[in-house]
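NADH-quinone oxidoreductase subunit E, Methylogaea oryzae. Tokens?
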Amino acid sequence: MNVLLLACQFVPLLGLLLIALFGRSEKRIAVISSWATRLLGGCILALLGMWAAHGFGGYEYLWFTVYSSGDYQLPVLFYLDRISAAYLFAVWVIFSVIVRYCRYYLHREAGYKRFFLTIFAFVLGLNMVVLSGSLDVLFAGWEIVGIASFLLIAFYRHRVQPIRNALRAYSIYRFCDIGLLLGAWFSHQILHGGNHFAELAQLFGNDTVLPANLTALFVLSWFITIAACGKSAQFPFCFWLPRAMEGPTPSSAIFYGALSVHLGVFLLLRTLPIWGFMFITRLMVFVIGLLTVIVAALSEKAQSSIKGQIAYASIGQVGFMFMELALGLESLVLLHFLGNAFLRCYQLLVSPSIVAHLLRVEGAADTGLNVRGNSMAQWLPLSLRDTLPEVLRNTLQVFALQECNLEGLVRATLWDPLKQAGAAVNAVGLGRKLVVASGVLLVGWLGLESGLLERQYLAGPAVLGMALASVAGFSQKGSVFKVWNAVGASCLLAGATIWLLRMEAGSDVELFLAGIVPSWLLGLGVLSLMLRGENFAETPFAYRAMAETKPGLSLLLFFSFLGLVSFPISPAFIGEDLLLYHASGHHGWIVALIAVSFVINGIAAARVFLRLSMGRPVEVRRDAVEAALAAAPVPRLAAVQETAPG
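Tokens:
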């Protein structure tokens, strides 16, 4: 079973590498993807068969320990039980269907290879989440799924709206990842290493002896619920999922109709022993699901596209799953998940054909065709909405068109305060910032040398500078170099904060900076080459389309972006967790500030990547011409017009 568990992880990675290295034509990509899918299916079926032969019990496998430092351990754990078995079976079936479907649906599409690379990366992260044995491994797969979703929403990179929606969805992911990041850290603190999914049932098996106090468990449950709500588009984050349908229909089917949208349910199922024994946390999950169902039922009626309607239908069904989980119906949730995943995948895949068929019917029928006005109208059922007064119906229609104002609520609560704080920081000139920073460092150095100050007292200014650098980069749009340097400075100050708090954490801080500093410097070099001869400040809101004009540099920028945001391909991913671990022995607000800064940095760096890599080259040239004409002297233009023939 151990070999098969590893094969479920490495087969998607093998398919990704083979397509990247040898996928020079559609035919070769199709062959590689088909054989990789069959191999993955064989491994999954063999694994589930062996698991069934062993009695359907939970099976845990410790592969190796990535990092060990004192009391801190980061093992790579895999765990298989009925929850992961149900999700793994759904992954195989739906992924196989999508790969087969895309061989024809994306024929002669410009991003054919890019799509298959991203979809294999998605399955790699998804299998890692489904087979994870702890929150740390789950968080690694969670990040891979998030970045794959980000890339596929912006798949049609010539259009502005998919790019904006990709950043919107990624921002929600990152904000809600605070919950999973802090949840993984907090579980280490209060469960004292017993945070393996295989051990949770034993830890909470005795109601009289709990592994932690109720307040700490409630806080941990709250963190987990925030992460689940963001990934599954539950209240109040319902609005981003219909906008994520801007990507190709197959990616919408596998992500937002079938698999990715149910990962929040998977997280709650996995952590059920943590939050399930308290009435208040069950009530919280139930209320979130109920509010989501109401919002989805209203908003679905006002959607103008079939994919938007299916998106809200899927959101509503996940809301019902939250309610079922709160009521303790775990087996029903698994059956509900399988039925909803297969149904929504089918609906999304056939939606283009349905729309085309209805357009042909409409074109062939008389213009006065009215479904409710014909003889069959008496058989059509009346909805609850039809029985309401007209004023109330109109009010609900407007409310539904605005999607219950949830985006405005989230923006006013999370986005706008950070932008305002960043604008206030950026209003202070760079020279004044350098003078203040130099003064603080000089005073701190003199205090340390004279013995009047201790190292811990400088950690406060360092963590404050980290937070200010993060919000400054978040709200900065006029210069990509300022954004990139602000993100890098924030990460450096985060490492300095931990070093000042604990000198013995120096090696762990070095591990974190070993992933951050090379990515930062590589990004600066790539940005210098990409923007050579261009004035970014003239048109800061235009997309530069360098993924097409300078594909090599754009790819390097993408990898430096991943390293700078501590993606699981960099030592900074482990270092990020280590910084929170070392900060936990001090004030909790330092841990919260560091986690929030990491999330904000990810959004700011993603915006830089989108601004430079996405867009249409023709529009970029047109923007440059318009900017040059606007900057040209007026007398010279008049002279040209006078001498022009005709």
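Confidence is low (pLDDT under 50) at residues 371-377, 634-646.
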